Amino acid sequence: MVGWVIGAAAAIAAAGGGAWMLGAKTQQPKRRPIGELPRAPYETVRFESEGVPMVGWLIRPDAAGTDSGGPLPLVVIAHGWGSNRSRVLRYAHPLVEAGYAVFVYDARSHGESGSVKAPTGLMFMADIEAAVATAARLPGVDASRIAVLGHSMGGLGALLAYAGGLPVRAVITDNAPLTIETILRSELRRRNLPVFPLARIILRVWLLRAGVPYREVRRIDMPAWVAANAEAVRGGGGKPVLMIHSTGDPVIPAEELRSVTARAPVEHRFVDAQGHSCSEQDPAFWQAVLPFLQRHLAGGGPRR
To answer: What is the pLDDT of residues 146-163, one digit of tens each?
Structure first.
């Protein structure tokens, strides 16, 4: 009997240790090197998020692409998990050509920014808040005309920050998850691991490693906030949000956004793209994004 108890305890301990190691492994994004550089004039900007060094680029339209020498409206672009600022230049180039200044940056534990022990969606939220505050102080930027475009986890972080009072005029998301559980299910499927019961276990490992109380995450209901905000916008209030999703996204299924848009008037666009990071290749993406920004940022310079 004693031997059975000891064996069971050892098995439980081994399973717990395995879950902890798996949680730690999945919580460390792959650092990808900075590749492509901006085609337009840019400058490197260094700042901090919660005391950790961050690196970004401020990219400006050249003189021929703007209608005046005055401050420009700006779009802050937030990349997703395992990405970096050079990999979201696919959004930046068309925006700069449309006359907007653009600020791209590396989230913590990504690109050339400093590291944290346990990145989470809340880290992405804090990094977006730091990036917006930094960009608003840069010369030539109109701090009263800033929007955020977030891809994947960057989109979730943007929504979290926006719901908490981020001082921007509008937010655009591209292939963004609306819950941490969606992210976990995607990661487990990618590794060919069972979603149940690992999703619940790994979530708690992530939060324990990050020092985030479980109750703090459970109180976040982003689908409900998106739906309620859409109703408020229809009534003349709320915060402008445009949500875009690829119909062929294999990482974050489009059904999550469909379920929200089915019950609330969320401004959205589904684009015909087969992948998680290629929505902008469908002309419908820019047919939605540029008019949305023009409405809420009062336009950039004339398109070249």
So the answer is: 999 999 999 999 999 999
